[in-house]
Structure formats: C-alpha cells, structure tokens
Amino acid sequence: MKTFIAGSCCIENTFHQVDPTEFQEIEFEVEVLKALNCVFPDYFCGVFAGSFVFEGDRRVSDLALIHKSFTHWFVVEVELSTHSLESHVLPQLRCFRFGEPESSCITSLCRGFPDLSRENAKTLLSLIPRSAVVITNSKNSSWDYALRAIDVQQIIISVFKDHHGKTAHEVEGSLQFTRENIGFATYLPTDNSLRLPKSCKLPLGKIQIEDLYGSIGTWIVREDDGYIWITKEKGTTLFPTGAYIQILRTYDGSISFKVSPTEYEKI
User: Fold this and answer.
1) Is 72:130 a contact under the CB 8 Å cutoff?
2) pLDDT tens sequence across 143-190
3) Residues with Cβ < 8 Å from 27, sequence gap 6 or more?
4) Of the residues 27, 105, 115, 143, which has the fewest C-beta atoms closer than 10 A?
C-alpha cells in the first residue's frame, strides 16, 4: 500500500492508503463525493439517482458533475474494481452514455442540486451535452480499452488515513468533455442572422460552422447593440422560420448548429 507525508516528517503528517477491498460501494461513494467536490471546483457535484434506458435496459446512476457554466455535464458511475466489467460495469455505462433519461432524472436532479428548477433540469437533460465517467477504487488496466470503446472516461480515487483517522484522497485522471453548449440563438429572418447574448464564447470574425444539414460554411461573427450576431458569408442560411438554434462546440474546436425544439429555459 502507498504512504505519503504531507509536510514535515512526523506521524501527524503521515497517511497510509486504506485497502481498497475494505470498502462497500456506498462507503466508497461518500469518499468520492468528498474528493470530487475538492478536485473539480468548476463543477457542482451531487447525488443523482436518475434512471436511463438504452435498448430496453434500464439503469440508475450514482452522481452527477455539472459544469458551473452549464455548458456540459457528466453522469457519474461509482464502481468497485472487483465488479464484473462485462455483466455490470459496461451495461451501466452504455446506458448512461447513450440512453434516454426517464422522468425520474428531473426529480433526482432537483433533489441533488437544490438550485435547479424543474425547467432547468429539463433543459440540462434534453439540450446540454452529456458524457459519462466511471470512478473506481483501484486501477484495473483490463477496463481501459473497453471504456474507451464506448467513449467513457475513468478516474481512480484512493483513500488514505492518518493514525487519528483523518482522511486524504488521491485522484488519478481528469474530466474531458466531448461537446459543450455555447448558447442558444434566435434566428431573425429580417436580418438573415442569428442573435446571441454577448456572454457567449464565440470568437469574433470569420469562422467555419457546420449547418443543420452537415455542410460547412464560413460565418461572420460580430458584436453590435449588446448582442453577438452570426451571419453566413455567402448563400442562404436555410433556418426554419422562428427557430431557436443551439450552437455546440466539440473538444477539437469544431462548431455546429442544432435546432432546439423550443425556447430553452435559461439555467
């Protein structure tokens, strides 16, 4: 087992790793919450027992990490490394990564994150990009390739204690979102442009954007009258009249449009 010394060499600063096999999953989840809230300060972290359905399989999650900008979020599965990868871990994570949320997700989000209204929770579930991450109590290299194949990240959290029982945590891994929400735009046919709040993260000038039909074109982003405006450099925009358009950005910087079913409830 590992040992680390925090500061000067004395018994009060010496922490020894707790045997990972000692934990029940519910006990380990408590330690995970402590560690995540400390290591990822840009996220809200809380209990999220929402159910998702994928190909007829229904699974219930453990936690959620929601970025404080509400541009993306993670469904978190807490697992002991002794659990079966094929029969338990992968079915759970496939469901959270690709499945559809049930109505219980709204209630659970509001319970675990009291500042979220039900409308906020609906927006998060239906429109804000979601990823999945599994937190384990020890590294299991046989999981790596299988998790990557379904686009799921893994974080390992180890628990340490000193001779008084004070705990410390080691966190191995990071959070990498695949897509983020930049904002929601109103399409104004009279201006042939999209209008967004000034607070959006789009750079000014000419940028390439993938439209609703998969074509990539050049768009001009400018600031005027307290808003950000997006106008196609050449050609017709082909946006539905009165449409609300979501702007998304992937991890590699690519930007795309998506029709939002209704005007979103701002979080």
Assistant:
1) yes
2) 888 999 999 999 999 999 988 889 999 999 989 988 999 988 888 888
3) none
4) 115
pTM of the entire predicted model: 0.89
pLDDT confidence tier of residue 266, bands split at 50, 70 and 90: low
Q: Please give the Cα distance from 216 to 32 (Å, whole number).
A: 42
Residue 86 falls in which region: left (phi positive, over 0), alpha (psi -120 to 50) or beta: alpha
CA separation for the pair 16, 32 (Å, rounded): 17
Q: What residue type is assigned to position 95 of the chain?
A: C
Tokens describing residue 76: 């978190």
Element at 160 (helix H, strand E): strand 153-161
Length of the chain measured in residues: 267
Place of tokens 């991450």: 133
Tokens at 12, concatenated = 């009060």
SS (H, E, C) 72-85: CEEEEEEECCCCCH
Give CA–CA dist 70/129, Å, rounded.
9
Place of tokens 């390992």: 156
CA distance 28 to 41: 20
Rounded to whole angstroms, the Cα distance separating 68 from 71 reads 8
